[in-house]
Amino acid sequence: MYFRREIGIWGENLVCKYLESNNYKIIKRNFICRQGEIDIIANDQNKEELVFIEVKTRSNFKYGNPIEAVDKNKQNHMKLAIRYYIYKNRIKNIAIRIDVIEVYLQKKGYKINHIKQVL
Asked: How far apart are CA 60 and CA 64, in angstroms?
């Protein structure tokens, strides 16, 4: 279990670097509340959108593609956590988006697949 968490943290760190190099401003990492968790909350400065991001990192396909792990149950928890974050921070009149970013660990580095507006 510890190894999986370390891979997840490593993937989130790679994604933050990727986002910052693509004109996103990281607002919060690992927002946790009773309703669920959001890996990264960022501002897409090109589109002026608040983006809630789920990061899925994989070193093999033993458990399928990363996006497949974002099932209906995970989506519902994300929606509840997002609603709570918006309420708690009194966010109004701003466009929001939910993305999934897949990180594939490979022998010679990694590959990032950014899937925008999944929900």
From this structure: 8
Residue 97 C-beta-side C-alpha neighbours within 13 Å: 18
Cα distance between residue 103 and residue 15, in whole Å:
8
**Three-state secondary structure call for residue 24:** strand
Contacts of residue 9, defined as CB under 8 A and 6 or more positions apart, other chains included, come to: none
Q: What is the pLDDT of residue 88?
A: 94
pLDDT per position as a tens digit, 32-50? 999 889 999 999 988 989 9
Write out the two tokens for 95: 């466009």
Domains of the chain listed by start with CATH number: 2-115 (3.40.1350.10)
Residue 98 CB partners (closer than 8 Å, separation 6+):
51, 52, 53, 54, 78, 82, 117, 118, 119
Can you tell me the distance from the alpha carbon of 24 to that of 16, in angstroms, rounded to the nearest whole number? 9
Residue 20 in contact with residue 29, Cβ under 8 Å?
A: no
